[in-house]
Amino acid sequence: MSTMSMIGQLASGMLATCEIFVLTLVFSLPLGLLVAFGRMSKIKPVQLITKIYISIMRGTPLMLQLLVVYFGPYYLFGMRLSTSYRFTATIIGFAVNYAAYFAEIYRSGIQSIPEGQREAAKVLGYTKNQTFFKIIFPQMVKRVLPSVTNEVITLVKDTSLAFVLAYAEMFTIAKQIAAAQTTMMPLFVAGLFYYIFNLIVAVGMEYLEKRMSYYQ
User: What is its main location (predicted)?
Assistant: First the structure.
């Protein structure tokens, strides 16, 4: 295999990795907020269900969750799904897993806001929605950004777990080429890609934290 051919295959894997990363954030960030609301709900059944969901997602391996999402429809309902479902199952698995982590981060951020601010907003005539989105939410975002950054960086590396569903992302392709050509170069390139990707994410999130800092 020529160098250009190898680079071309690895590039397609890089694109697949980026797709997993972006789509996971698109779905898990808002889903995590909904789960956080459920976790803080005064309705006991809703609170219990979300608490169990978070416990399962955080207490079991992501790899196992991906396998359950992919094979579950067949073993539970006898549904035969096409190979294209691999990508869908990957996104669903990552999204529901990371939503649980984001939910706990959001919850801690929301609960760290002094209760006096909610009471003051109520006195000023703010509705609950206005209080949350105009007063609580902006402060919560600033407080949880460092924790969210850690999870986002972890997500970059976790995208390699898509190999368990035989989805051809960066790490899977690199392993295949390395095995076929008996060379470590593809794995080295993959490692370099993950490092650069994480570096870009870290710099971007640090810039965002500075932009949102109270003291700037």
Answer: membrane
